[in-house]
Here is the input.
Amino acid sequence: MPAFYGFMGKTAGGGTTGDVALTEALEMDGQDIVDSNDNELITFTETASAVNHVNITNAATLGNPQIAAAGDDANIELTLQGKGTGDVVIGANDLQLDLDRKLHLRDPDGASTTYIEQTGAGIFGIHVNGADRLTYNPGVGTWTVDATKFTCDSGTAFTAKTTASFEGILNITETAAPGTPAANNASLWLDSTTNGWHVKYDSGTEHQFLTSDGYLNLGSARRLVLDTDGDTYIVSPSLNNLDIYAGGGQIMDYAGGTGNMTFGSASGTVTIPGGLTATDRFRANGLFARTIHSNIS
Here is the structure.
């Protein structure tokens, strides 16, 4: 049996004689504390010239017992180490860090500049190489990404429940056309083939609306709406044709194939400042009129 049992003393049956009160240091001399079956409960490893150690503190009702680093050094870390590839496992309860305490993730060289911390009520931050990288503020419900990139890998998505706001430059990488989005969704992307902006709706309908040359491209039969109720707009119903509508009624039609421009039949006037030249033609009510240097109103 280890020397510790000899120090305590044993009865004839092998049990201890009761509590042992220590009035000075107990020298283990590299020995172990074992159970009733002579199996190790705690083993000790000596370090030459050691000045730091572990301190165990008990607690009263509602208090928390404590295992802490202690010793001569001003700042001492406490290491919990699994064996081999074994991990340090937290039991069924949570691992709790006090406010402003940091959970460090050591770099391979042993540095400790990457960490997670809570700096206020619900304010959560991730720091890499000592710099703020990602911060969540529950007071305003915002995630802040600082001095780095926010990337969603293939197959994942970034979802904003309300409004996504970006301060600075938002860089969009060209990509191939996606599949049809889910119901009540739409996809917006920079197409790698046409180099233009595209949008696709859950119906499968796809439109290119801004080209790499800076043109606003609405596509055939798509409207450029100019009012809030949608009845004043410009539309190209077919190739080289242009229509203008106001108040729900067509007020002008230009046919590119013939070069004819037709105004709506509603009552009103058409004014051409400066008059018409000898080669200008004006068609009204099916009649053809040729006027030289005259004003028509």
